[in-house]
Amino acid sequence: MGQPGLNRRQLLAAAGGLAVAGSFGFAALGTGADALASGADTRVRYWNLFSGGDGSNMIAMLDAFRESNPGIDVKDSTLQWGNPFYTKLAMAAAGNRAPDLGVMHLGRVTGFSPGRLLDPWDVGLLAKYGVREADFNPELWKRAVVDGKLYALPLDIHVQLCFYRKDVLKKAGLLGDDGRIVPVTSTDEWFDVLKEAKKATKKGLQTVGLWVNDQNFQWWFFVAFYTQLGGTWFDADDSEVTFDTDKAVQVLEFLRRHITDGYADPGMGSVGAEQFINGAPFAWEGNWSVPVYSGAKLDYGAIPLPPVFGEQATHAESHGFVLPHQSGRGGATNEAAHRLAAYVVTHAQQWAAGGHIPAYTPTLSTTAYKKLDPQSEYVSAMDHQATEPKVWFAGSTGILAQRIGPIVVSSTLGSAKPEAVADRMKSALTELLAMKNPMDGRTAAQGGTAA
Fold it and tell me: What is each CA distance from 176 to 109, 141, 241, in whole angstroms?
């Protein structure tokens, strides 16, 4: 495919700025000259961004692969999450010093110049190792396809959830006969639930933790509820903004009401998790909080964000395996990378323990997965994903969240009125749509086509 025609300045600007790049040093981009592990004849260099519980689960999965495949030496490296990771990965791919396998959020794939900084997957090789399109949610698979080629192999979806304390809700009369929260299908029903839950909540605790000061969470919540309303962002060609300000106002007013009605405390900032552990009835958090709450031995459940606007939809992002560009990609190492990725994807029970929903759907029907609690309670989110638009400036820690997230926060906290905020959001979307991707110099309308 040839070396990508990208210069250093373009790459650094695209991935988050010059200051970020200087924090890790480009000497680290080298492949190293470590000896192969004993008995191995092929090495796969694998970069990921998993730390904490995710990191431990990934290491366990890699160790299982090593035991099953002694001929393949996996050289894994965990790098700093966020833009530093993407900057380093881009520099490595542009300089033909990329690892054999990497991880990305699916929302970032379109902006990573597929075909220049990413190589496509060989779907025939994936099928050889048990991975086929039919075993994935169709919409999830399509998110990984650009110009008709698969550029990411989905590992999971991670979603925003409504965690609830069963002990508190039982006192409030808000549990059904199945021991789960009563159904909520409208904004009025949701605020009725909060009203009753507050009566059963210990003094000093807020009713629901919403991360009201956090631009990422507020943006994720907005995406979920705007999608429930059927809101769109751009036309099919990504040439015009179709953002509906009236629907946006409905969502913004809904988020703001949690504070004005006294259910969320802006002074508590991002301490929703601690409040929930201490007895607050609700917390809106990502599914990665499951190990935290289970470790605290709470009596709790978790559902996708409630369908208060009628349609089921909760914000979702995904981790996926990618093949960073290598001018000489192929041969035994490339096949080993396919084999490793396929193994992890098809053996994701360990990954599910961290709260993520495995992308490989056969895992979801196993007895072992169905016994996971609360994972099995929110697995339906796979079929109701609210995702960011498939444009180059979207995705986890991407420009879209950085630009729009603070605007949403200003409405939630009350420093700006919802109508004015909705107009600002539309203006920002218009500006972003006209911007060129520093990776390849193309606007969203000029970029690669979706599946």
Answer: 42, 35, 43
Q: Which of 373, 351, 368 is nearest to 360 (CA)?
A: 351
Strand locations in 187-325, DSSP E?
A: 208-209, 282-286, 300-304, 314-317, 319-324
Instruction: Give the Cα separation of 368 and 359 in Å (integer).
Output: 16
Helix, strand, coil shares, percent, the chain, to 5: 45, 15, 40
Say what the pLDDT of residue 105 is: 95
> What is the distance between the alpha carbons of residues 128 and 174, in angstroms, rounded to a whole number?
49
pLDDT in the model for residue 38: 65
Work out whether strand 156-165 and strand 314-317 pair parallel, antiparallel, or are unpaired: antiparallel
- How do 300-304 and 156-165 pair as beta strands? antiparallel
| pLDDT recorded at residue 270 | 57
Q: Helix crossing, 399-412 with 418-434: angle to 10°?
A: 170
H or E element, residue 420: helix 418-434
pLDDT of residue 39: 74
Query: 362-366: long-range contacts (C-beta < 8 A, 24 or more apart)?
Result: 362/135
Burial of 63 (0-12, 13-18, 19+ CB in 10 A): exposed
3-class secondary structure, 129: coil
Extended strands (E) in 214-361: 282-286, 300-304, 314-317, 319-324, 357-358
- From the number of C-beta atoms within 10 Å of its C-beta (0-12, 13-18, 19+), residue 449 rates as exposed
Ranges of residues in the chain with a pLDDT under 70 are 1-35, 37-38, 269-271, 448-451
Predicted local distance difference test score (pLDDT) of residue 84: 84
Exposed/middle/buried for 318, CB within 10 Å: 0-12, 13-18, 19+?
buried
Q: To 5 degrees, how large is the angle CA 412–CA 414–CA 417?
A: 95
